[in-house]
Specification:
Methane Monooxygenase Hydroxylase, Chain G, domain 1, 455 residues
């Protein structure tokens, strides 16, 4: 009798695994949910209107990190708009029907989110200037991307016409316009800060071009910058060095652009983009607090990617890592494996084989969009938006549980050493973004106060 019960349980488990795999194949982001959470989601979705509401309140943010809520249409049978923090809203071009299986409407929601965001971005980019259209009425993500596209166009025109000083003056004028804007709404205040931070980065870039007397857009000092282009009035791509990365139109919410660009951050961006182009794993490493994971997330946000951070430890085995890599490959997300060298030796060996299968497809897919890979015994189609990064702390030096990577895995990683940035410049930019007068002097005083308070 026990043998019979055991066989029945095994048959049930096999059928359940097939059922879960079928749902994940329809909507790949479900690979990033545990089996228990996925079964809870599917169970709630079968409970009618109340179940759908529970799904949107409990699980939607796990699948779409930039979305904190939705607006429903008549009868609560469709989604008409997406909401982020501080009540920022993205209106969908077409309502998404939710009176159907949960994996179907989630897939339709993802597609409509990308389509609506793309249409809105293209309309904004082709407009004459941000100031002409009251920029604070648009989502922060659209404002930042449109500003990046315009800066690239203006900078290349200024380089060829030798008018970089004029461009710098125009950027300072734009920065003053944003700083002087009287904003009370919290969402609009975050948008204002993001635009000011980007203007500060532009001024640093233009000044470096002036100091180096750059007169050609093929100069390496310009080519190594992260540049944004509108191709054929319908597609936006980012270029940096050898890499060309298509924008993926993931709605990221109001926190887009809340990142201070430093020289080291740009070097990290360069390593990450070239690694992606070559089909390798970008590997920021260094002590805690140096911005390794935040740099990966910031770069992903600049190119419209869903960036998922996975905290590694010895409990994660090769099968778990294979499931996550499969989800990344199918969904086109970026995976940042934090504290990568905390994985067990057996898991690292398994990951080396999985990356050996995936990374060539990532490099090929980034160029042609047509390549498959075999992971966990299944052949899958790799999205052209897929990417993998790994961050690590040093072995020893107070970081327990870290281990050296096997040689086969080490060859797939392209490291970049990260150091703690100097506090005064960071504080100065953050204060300036909040329109605080005399920001550099105040930042130096604040840095001195906190340095003294440390002892």
């Amino acid at each position: 009798m026990l043998d019979s019960i055991s066989e029945q349980l095994h048959a049930c488990q096999s059928a359940l695994n097939l059922y879960i795999d079928e749902k994940r194949s329809i909507f790949p982001r479900l690979y990033f949910m545990s089996d228990d959470d996925l079964l809870e989601l599917l169970g709630q979705a079968r409970a009618g209107a109340e179940g759908r509401e529970a799904v949107m309140q409990t699980h939607l943010k796990k699948l779409f990190p930039g979305i904190t809520g939705v607006r429903l249409g008549p009868g609560d049978l469709s989604i008409t708009a997406l909401c982020s923090q501080y009540d920022e809203t993205l209106q969908l071009d077409h309502p998404v029907d939710i009176d159907c299986p949960v994996e179907i409407w989630l897939k339709n929601l993802e597609s409509e989110m990308r389509s609506s965001l793309q249409n809105m971005i293209l309309k904004c980019v082709v407009a004459s200037s941000l100031q002409d259209q009251d920029p604070f009425t648009l989502p922060a993500q659209i404002l930042c991307l449109a500003q990046n596209v315009r800066f690239t166009e203006q900078a290349e025109r200024a380089i060829t016409s030798k008018e970089l000083h004029k461009l710098k003056a125009n950027i300072e004028k734009e920065n003053s316009y944003y700083a002087a804007a009287d904003i009370e709404d919290e969402s609009e205040r975050y948008k204002k800060q993001a635009l000011i931070l980007q203007c500060a980065h532009y001024m640093v870039v233009v000044q470096s071009l002036i100091d180096s007397n750059v007169v050609s857009t093929s100069d390496w000092l310009w080519q190594k910058q992260l540049r944004f282009y509108l191709l054929n009035t319908k597609e936006i791509v980012a270029k940096m060095g050898l890499a060309q990365i298509s924008y993926s139109y993931e709605y990221l919410g109001v926190h887009t652009g809340q990142f201070v660009r430093t020289e080291l951050a740009d070097e990290c961006f360069l390593i990450l983009t070239q690694s992606l182009h070559l089909g390798l794993v970008g590997n920021p490493f260094g002590p805690a607090g140096t911005g390794k994971t935040e740099s990966v997330k910031a770069l992903g946000g600049l190119v419209g990617r869903l960036v998922l951070v996975f905290n590694c430890d010895e409990a994660m085995d090769a099968e778990c890592m294979g499931r996550l890599l499969t989800g990344l490959a199918l969904s086109g997300a970026w995976g940042c494996f934090d504290e990568f060298n905390r994985l067990s030796a057996a898991a690292l060996a398994g990951v080396a084989h999985q990356l050996a299968a995936l990374l060539p497809a990532v490099a090929h897919s980034a160029r042609s969009g047509d390549r498959t890979a075999t992971l966990n015994g299944k052949q899958i189609k790799v999205s052209p938006w897929c990417g993998v990064a790994a961050t690590m702390n040093p072995i020893g030096r107070g970081y327990g549980g870290r281990r050296a990577l096997p040689a086969a895995l080490g060859r797939a990683l392209r490291p970049v050493a990260m150091l703690a940035p100097a506090p005064p410049p960071l504080a100065a930019q953050l204060l300036a973004a909040r329109a605080v007068p005399h920001a550099p002097r105040l930042a130096a005083d604040l840095a001195g106060v906190f340095t003294l308070a440390r002892y």
